Amino acid sequence: MDLGIKGRVAVITGANGGMGLATAKILASEGVKLVLSDIETEQLERDAAALGPDVAVVRADVTSQRDVDALIGGAVSRFGRLDIAVHTSGITGAKGDPLEMTDEDFEEAYRTDFLSAVRVARASLPRMRVNKWGRFVCIASENAVQPYWEEATYNVAKAALVAFVKGVSYKAAADGILCNTVSPAFIATPMTDEMMRKRADERGTSFEEAIESFLEEERPGIVQKRRGEADEVAAMIAFLVSERASFVNGANCRVDGGSVLAVQN
Q: Is residue 205 part of a domain?
């Protein structure tokens, strides 16, 4: 399927592996010019080189508005415009009893998982408005609508993110900019790898057994009994930033294998 975005310019945060890099690969194959960013860029430089000549890499810390402004401004300087912003950066944050989480624990997740999206929106949407066309997509989580007790810091940050993007979507659409979130669940990424390694260590099991027990005990809705793949999330992101999603705005699109056990988003 031709997504109708050949020649568009996209910035992707958190592109050093996982869903960000998987999205970059799809968009590059569609002829999109890319600026990829992360806080660590050594491996990203190597991955970007394989995607073609119209791919740049910029180190950026999304907890800094200055870095985000430089990232977006650099993309416009290099390619002359900005059409698409895909924000995938995030952390799991501190875990445990919600009442034992400190202010600092909540603030860390809030700064990285929520305010980072605000910073990217501040910098990117005005650039898109100039051309009356744009796509802004942020990675949220199943936690935004199905919170887990031991992940309170992450729950509230991702819920805030979904609400923010929904709010921004109303007026942005008047300028041809469509804003949506994608909420994955238990995807095979470095983040969930670390979660499963920790679980395996705590239980004295193998990595594979940790995944199996987690699915059985914590994610019964995923009846396929596997982690999702980054490519499966990237396919949704690619659709949302394309011309094919021209009437999708303010949506929270779940790619969760059925993990969320409710009808509502």
A: yes
